[in-house]
Amino acid sequence: MRILGIDPGLCITGYGLIEVGPKGIKLIEAGVVRTSSKEKVEARIEKIYEGIKGLVKESKPDVLVLEQLYSHYRHPTTAILMGHARGAICLLAKQAGAELVGYSATRVKKAVTGAGHASKYQMQRMIQNLFNMRSAPNPPDISDALALAVAHAHISLKHGIAGLK
């Protein structure tokens, strides 16, 4: 089963594609789609959509995993901007016929590190160790995306979801 984790952002959208099989979890590809704050919002959304669309078309993931939308009362604009990128990804999942799953940040952290309030650094180190990387993924949006995919694999295995038994 192929799982594509996506950390949507209007400036940087991170992605991480993993494959889960009898031999465990294997990293297939990871990276980012970048946009410029100088571009109009519709051009930025299109760039994110097209970048992830190409990846989905080429890799044919079974599941797309996104972090559930969270908004802190001090930064509501951040959630709105992230929502634009999320909407493009949700549309893409539907068009590709892939299952779309969402988890809260604490659920992802708990599934990956065992602690629901793990730091960004702890998450990066765990992803680095899991995939035997020389250094932590940079920018952190990549490790966040990989963490989403890994969390779905762990949660699915724990609950015996079809395709991951």
Task: Report helical residue fraction.
Answer: 40-55%
Shape: globular
Overall structural class, as computed from helix and strand content, comes to alpha/beta
Individual helix count: 5
CATH class: Alpha Beta
Describe the main β-sheet briefly.
5 strands, mixed
The CATH homologous superfamily is termed Ribonuclease H-like superfamily/Ribonuclease H
Number of domains: 1
How many E-type strands? 5
Whole-number average pLDDT?
90
Runs in which pLDDT lies below 50 for 5 or more consecutive residues are none
The termini sit apart by 10 Å
Query: Which value, in Å, is the CA radius of gyration?
Result: 15 Å
Gross CATH architecture: 2-Layer Sandwich
The fraction of residues in strands falls at 15-25%
Question: Could you please describe the fold and organization of this structure?
Answer:
The chain is of the alpha/beta class. It has a single domain, classed as Ribonuclease H-like superfamily/Ribonuclease H (Nucleotidyltransferase, domain 5, 2-Layer Sandwich), CATH 3.30.420.10. 48% of the residues lie in helices and 22% in strands. It is built from five helices and five strands, in the order E-E-E-H-E-H-E-H-H-H. A five-stranded mixed β-sheet has the order 3-2-1-4-5. Strand 4, helix 2 (76-96) and strand 5 (99-103) form a beta-alpha-beta unit. Helix 1 (41-59) packs parallel to helix 2 (76-96), helix 3 (105-113) packs across helix 5 and helix 4 packs across helix 5. The longest helix has 21 residues, at 76-96. The chain is globular.
